[in-house]
């Protein structure tokens, strides 16, 4: 392998490994606090833990949120079949799905230009 | 009433149905336009990077970092994607991430998908990329275009601006069709404050990533390629 080829190979390998490590490992230490948008929609409400789960008391935007249509997905909320310990696996599956989908779409777009349309 | 507190993105029901439909139609039209324009940004050499950038944005969006006690934030990725692979391809990267998150991970409402695409893909990329073009022009005027830290600065500033503008997208949608009690100015002020903090985190991640790619493969970075073509055309 030439030096240039080795450098190119290292770049792609580094990018892939970084993506998999972030999705599969770093995801375990992500903050579970609501993000800026969620916390804005929670202004005016208190989150109370009850037997039926988290309830909102008070008056806020988040009370209008409805059940997610895809909450039946086995990967819903970055779990694997509801197990929160599967976040790393869920992350890696998601990254691979996005790579395949985006790669496929971009390849088709690049090809459609080449064929002169 | 029980509501699951989900991380990231707008949920269903925060904004009324007509507004959701309007932004859904807008998002479909804009993504189709970007797909048409993205063909001039994509070739055999850049397709792998574009696909990887989308996967990378998905991965980094999972990492919520704390910004205030009890409040977190995560990368949106519009400026990052646009700098690396071009604005039209960048919109497609973020839109694909949002579709997969919504349909596979129940993250971000299905009816809110149009609004999430409008905020993070369209506004985030438009504001982030135009800022990057302006700041990079200033960097070139000082003959620093080969300086890796200068490129990091371009990434930092454009990501910060892109994130703050994307949050204002929610304010617009809430003003049009918000179904709830909080006052618009209170929502706007709170969102701007938190998203400037989130934007600083986004800026650091964007700067580190842009510097890493520019150091090993400057030939692949869209912002640098585009300027080189301009320079050749001017010569």
In short:
The complex is a heterodimer of chains A (117) and B (235). Helices cover 48% and strands 10% of the residues of chain A.
What secondary-structure arrangement, pairings included, does this model have?
The complex is a heterodimer of chains A (117) and B (235).
Chain A: H1 3-24, H2 36-41, E1 45-50, E2 53-58, H3 87-114
Antiparallel strand pairs in A: 1-2
Chain B: H1 17-38, H2 47-61, E1 65-68, E2 71-73, H3 78-85, H4 87-105, H5 113-141, H6 148-177, H7 184-216, H8 222-234
Antiparallel strand pairs in B: 1-2
Helix pairs in contact in B: 1-4, 1-5, 2-3, 2-4, 3-4, 3-5, 3-6, 3-7, 4-5, 5-6, 6-7
Essential attributes:
heterodimer; A: mainly alpha; two-stranded antiparallel sheet; 2 strands; B: 235 residues; mainly alpha; two-stranded antiparallel ribbon; disordered N terminus
Question: Overview of this structure, please?
Answer:
The complex is a heterodimer of chains A (117) and B (235). With 117 residues, chain A is mainly alpha-helical. Helices cover 48% and strands 10% of the residues of chain A. Chain A contains three helices and two strands, in the order ααββα. A two-stranded antiparallel sheet of chain A has the order 1-2. In chain A, β1 (45-50) and β2 (53-58) form a beta hairpin. The radius of gyration of chain A is 21 Å and the shape is elongated. The mean pLDDT of chain A is 89. By secondary structure, chain B is mainly alpha-helical. Helices cover 72% and strands 3% of the residues of chain B. Chain B has eight helices and two strands, in the order ααββαααααα. Chain B has a two-stranded antiparallel sheet. The model of chain B is unreliable at 1-7 (pLDDT under 50). At the A-B interface, α1, α2, β2 and α3 of A face α2, β1, β2, α4 and α6 of B.
């Amino acid at each position: 392998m030439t030096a240039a080829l080795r450098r190119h190979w290292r770049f792609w390998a580094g990018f892939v490994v970084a993506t998999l490590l972030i999705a599969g490992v770093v995801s375990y230490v992500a903050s579970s606090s609501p993000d800026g948008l969620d916390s804005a929609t929670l202004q005016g409400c208190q989150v109370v833990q009850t037997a039926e789960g988290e309830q909102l008391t008070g008056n806020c935007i988040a009370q209008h949120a409805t059940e997610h249509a895809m909450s039946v997905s086995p990967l819903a909320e970055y779990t694997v079949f509801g197990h929160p310990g599967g976040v790393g696996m869920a992350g890696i599956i998601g990254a691979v799905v996005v790579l395949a989908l985006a790669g496929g779409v971009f390849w088709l777009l690049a090809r459609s230009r080449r064929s002169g349309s | 009433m029980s509501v699951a507190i989900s991380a990231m993105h707008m949920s269903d029901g925060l904004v009324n149905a007509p507004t959701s439909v309007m932004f859904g139609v807008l998002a479909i039209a804009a993504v189709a336009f970007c797909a048409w324009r993205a063909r001039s940004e994509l070739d055999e050499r850049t397709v792998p990077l574009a696909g990887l950038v989308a996967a990378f944005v998905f991965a980094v969006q999972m990492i919520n970092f704390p910004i205030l006690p009890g409040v977190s934030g995560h990368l949106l990725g519009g400026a990052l994607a646009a700098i690396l692979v071009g604005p039209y391809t960048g919109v497609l990267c973020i839109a694909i991430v949002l579709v997969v998150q919504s349909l596979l991970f129940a993250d971000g409402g299905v009816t809110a998908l149009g609004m999430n695409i409008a905020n993070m893909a369209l506004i985030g990329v438009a504001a982030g990329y135009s800022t990057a073009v302006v700041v990079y022009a200033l960097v070139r005027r000082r003959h620093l275009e080969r300086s890796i830290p200068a490129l990091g600065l371009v990434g930092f500033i454009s990501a910060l601006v892109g994130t703050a503008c994307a949050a204002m997208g929610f304010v617009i949608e809430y003003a049009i069709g918000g179904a709830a009690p909080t006052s618009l100015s209170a929502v706007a002020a709170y969102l701007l404050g938190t998203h400037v903090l989130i934007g600083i985190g986004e800026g650091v991640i964007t700067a580190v990533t842009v510097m890493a790619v520019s150091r090993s493969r400057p030939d692949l970075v869209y912002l640098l390629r585009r300027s080189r073509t301009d320079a050749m055309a001017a010569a």
